[in-house]
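Good day; I would like, with your permission, to put a structural problem before you. What I wish to show you is a protein chain and, alongside it, a tokenised description of its three-dimensional fold. I would ask you to consider whether the tokens describe a fold that such a sequence might reasonably adopt. You will find the record immediately after this paragraph:
***
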Amino acid sequence: MTICEFCGKEIPDGGICSCDEALTAAENMPGVSDEIYGDDAEISISDEITEDTVIDVPEQNSTDDVNVLDFLDNPQRPVYQEEDDEHEQVTAHVEYESNAQPEQHYTERPAVQQTVRRRVSKKAIMRRRRCAALAAILLFICGISFIHNHTGCRGAVHSYWKCVVDEDGGADYYTLGLPRVLIKHFKDTGEWKNLIGNYENLSAKAVKLKRIKKKKRMTKDELRAAEDYLYNLARIYGAKTADGEIIADKGYFVTVVYKFGEDKVLGGAYYVKIEGDGWKVLPHDMEG
């Protein structure tokens, strides 16, 4: 608050007292408007700037014209503020990333482990399959070998050389050497048990089959000779035979290498398949 110098009344700072002396003094002051609005009167300077007023604007380096009023209405932001805003955005982005949930990198490791386990399991399955296939092949080969060595002509050869060294091989030995009609005759007369009981095996002489060297298919004449041999053998021991009862289907002359003591011996015999009677072993000269 200020005190009027004329009447001593308190007036607001920058205001004009309403006394006559103060008003007279205000009218005589240069540049003051004639209109006074009492205690709240203010000096208005907006009328002093008109459209015709020329404002000198300093030259700009840019070739574009600059509108001062536009500049005043839309002041440009200082560069440092933009940098600050960018810094704030970067900081906010960093804070957002720091507050965000961390990436679950651990999910990749179980996936890799599962892939490795899957590969290991596949390898184990393939390994088991290969082992199973190999076992099947070995079983097949063993089966073929067993069938090959224990059936047909080779089976007859192995059976014969097995029974000649077996103490209880008399039944197999005479079954392979005699026709069915003669075996029946011996069983009917009671001679079969005596024949088997008197069988002398060759085990004491260390006889052992080493290998089958070769076999040769019998000719028709040899097959007819084998039939005659068996017929004659049955008649010698009193067995009654009918014509066509002994028929040789096929046969081979088999050469083998066997061990007799410490010596290796080359021997051979006829192996003939008789219809309804199986394989028979006949001596190489077919003499009774």
About this structure: The first helix runs from residue 20 to 27. The chain has three domains: 1-53, 114-149, 151-282. The radius of gyration is 67 Å.
